[in-house]
């Protein structure tokens, strides 16, 4: 993987000089997000709780994510390369090798059929799980849900994807290095697999099912992780929208016993004007056995969350947002030793 970029760059360079109109097949983009967040638990080291990976720093101005990306696309081939810095990269990719912590995406693709929209992509790609991404401006809420922060944002492997002629059905199959992995950890040799079915049932309804079957533990433990993600997005009018989601997973929580975790979520968004929106999110995360979010509590991690945000689109490139969020747990699972937590976050995003 250290030399993963070499074949990509060679491919792109050859494509660039092969014909004069190749430049029209390139696109370049940039994204930046600066934020300030205040956690009323007042962590002295400025770090929020261990289940939070975005907007991680308390009481300081910081960059959550800054990316630069280049993409190439024609009728038979495509490629994407993106580099990043910021708190998202620092904390969400902390288990990866240092070189990989700066890679937002790096993949190449080839079309497998002349008659059908069937593609094979390989490399570091965005996760096929969930409706939230690392970029705040792409999401209905400023901060990520507990569900999103504790399931994959990215993955590495092979993706075979098909889109029908009506472009209302997308089906994809994956062979992966693991649960949100660029480099496969030592002592894990087994591959992981996944699939996604995304269907636009009507102009208003989009339905999605994604799964993951594999492991995130050494082969010697003989552990199998299964995970299912479902969501429905409903937007009957320009002014109002609704997302309903549910995740459930299973894995070993010790050397012999299996447990499961689950998380329902609902988001409502309303456009006050063409430039101003509000959103309300309700969520619950239950991981009693500490499979994904370990705690010292005997009742595990059982947390309800409620957040509301106000967004203002300053212009077509810049957006300002502010959000208030409260968590309530069945036990004292937060850093300040209490069973509740409140935070305020504001950010400024720019797209280029």
Annotation keywords:
352 residues, mainly beta, 7% helix
Low-confidence regions? none
- Beta percentage is over 45%
Helix content: under 10%
Give the averaged pLDDT, no decimals: 93
Strand order of the largest sheet: 1-2-3-4-5-6-7-8-9-10-11-12-13-14-15-16
Would you kindly provide a brief summary of this structure?
This protein has 352 residues and is mainly β. The chain is 7% helix and 50% strand. The relative contact order is 0.13.
Structure description:
It is a single chain. This protein has 352 residues and is mainly beta. 7% of the residues lie in helices and 50% in strands. A 16-stranded antiparallel β-barrel has the order 1-2-3-4-5-6-7-8-9-10-11-12-13-14-15-16. The longest helix has 14 residues. It starts with a helix and ends with a strand. 36% of the residues are buried. The model has no long low-confidence stretch (mean pLDDT 93).
List the helices and strands and how they pair.
Layout: H1 5-18, E1 26-39, E2 61-73, E3 77-85, H2 87-92, E4 103-111, E5 117-126, H3 146-149, E6 154-163, E7 169-176, E8 192-199, E9 205-214, E10 225-234, E11 240-252, E12 258-271, E13 276-287, E14 301-313, E15 318-329, E16 340-351
Antiparallel strand pairs: 1-2, 1-16, 2-3, 3-4, 4-5, 5-6, 6-7, 7-8, 8-9, 9-10, 10-11, 11-12, 12-13, 13-14, 14-15, 15-16
């Amino acid at each position: 993987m250290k030399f993963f970029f070499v074949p990509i760059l060679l491919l792109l360079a050859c494509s660039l000089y092969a014909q004069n109109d190749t430049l029209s097949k390139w696109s370049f983009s940039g994204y930046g997000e600066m934020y300030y967040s205040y956690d009323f638990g007042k962590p002295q080291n400025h770090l929020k709780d261990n289940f939070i990976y975005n907007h991680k720093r308390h009481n300081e101005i910081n960059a959550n994510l800054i990316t630069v990306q280049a993409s190439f696309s024609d009728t038979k081939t495509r490629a994407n390369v993106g580099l990043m810095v910021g708190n998202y990269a620092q904390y969400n990719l902390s288990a990866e090798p240092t070189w990989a912590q700066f890679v937002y995406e790096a993949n190449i693709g080839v079309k497998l059929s002349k008659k059908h929209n069937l593609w094979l992509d390989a490399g570091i790609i965005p996760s096929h799980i969930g409706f939230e991404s690392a970029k705040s401006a792409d999401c209905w809420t400023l901060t990520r849900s507990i569900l999103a922060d504790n399931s994959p944002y990215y993955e590495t492997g092979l993706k075979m994807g098909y889109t029908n002629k009506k472009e209302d059905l997308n089906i994809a199959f994956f062979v992966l290095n693991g649960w949100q992995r660029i480099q496969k950890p030592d002592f894990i040799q087994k591959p992981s697999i996944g699939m996604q079915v995304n269907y636009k049932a009507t102009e208003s309804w989009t339905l999605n099912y994604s799964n993951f079957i594999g492991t995130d533990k050494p082969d010697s433990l003989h552990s199998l992780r299964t995970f299912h993600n479902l969501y429905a997005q409903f937007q009957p009018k320009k002014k109002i929208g609704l997302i309903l989601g549910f995740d459930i997973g299973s894995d070993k929580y010790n050397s012999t016993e299996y447990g499961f975790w689950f998380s329902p979520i609902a988001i409502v968004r309303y456009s006050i004007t063409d430039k101003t929106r509000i959103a309300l999110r309700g969520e619950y995360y239950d991981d009693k056995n500490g499979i994904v979010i370990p705690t010292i509590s005997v009742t595990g991690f059982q947390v309800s969350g409620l957040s509301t945000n106000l967004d203002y689109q300053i212009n077509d490139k810049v957006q300002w947002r502010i959000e208030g969020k409260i968590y309530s747990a069945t036990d004292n699972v937060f850093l300040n030793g209490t069973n509740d937590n409140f935070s305020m976050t504001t950010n400024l995003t720019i797209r280029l």
